Amino acid sequence: MPKILLVAGDATEDLEFFYPYQRLLEEGYDVDVAAPSRKKLSFVTHDFVEGYDTYTERQGHSWPADLALSEVDPAEYAALVLPGGRAPEYLRGDPDFPRVVTHFFDAAKPVAHICHAAIALAPLGVLKGRRTSAYPACAPDVELAGADFVDGPAVVDGMMVSARAWPDQPEWMRAFVAVLREHAPVKG
């Protein structure tokens, strides 16, 4: 059974973690959660409130990381998922994050990212020349990284599937699962 790596951290957006995690398990994939360290992660929930200029944030669920980023051998995984939230702000500073993430782009493996995950990808140079979605406030980061920002729910650019935020998850995961079924199918 193909394995998928889901990279998260404290302050990962709750829905952007659990929706793909459970959807990919349902599809038959093994999903490992990696974080800066092996620990129980604390997630957050973001919501959109009428009249509020940005999103709100509350404490979300928690979930254990299966392994630390330093323990990850990305060659063992068929695909990568990067949820958003505030976690990408500090995940991009983890010394093992670039090694793990760039492997998937260099090896042309499927990658799904959503919301603020784009700000963790931008410094790695992996967005250059691509079309990608992200939370609209991240558009300047995407464009500075040399990518074309697309304000859409499921943007497919080769093996990369991106979306704006958790309201886009049905379209995002439907597109990502289609890429997985073609390039990393579950056998049997």
UniProtKB/TrEMBL annotation:
Top-rank lineage group of the source organism: Bacteria
InterPro entries hit by this protein: C56_PfpI-like, Class_I_gatase-like, DJ-1/PfpI
CDD domains the UniProt entry points to: GATase1_PfpI_1
Pfam families from the UniProt entry: DJ-1_PfpI
Start and end residues of each DJ-1/PfpI domain: 3-177
Xref: PANTHER family: DJ-1 PROTEIN, DJ-1_THIJ_PFPI FAMILY PROTEIN
Family, as annotated: Belongs to the peptidase C56 family.
Annotated protein name in UniProt: Peptidase
Organism of this sequence: Streptomyces gilvosporeus
Taxonomic placement: Bacteria, Bacillati, Actinomycetota, Actinomycetes, Kitasatosporales
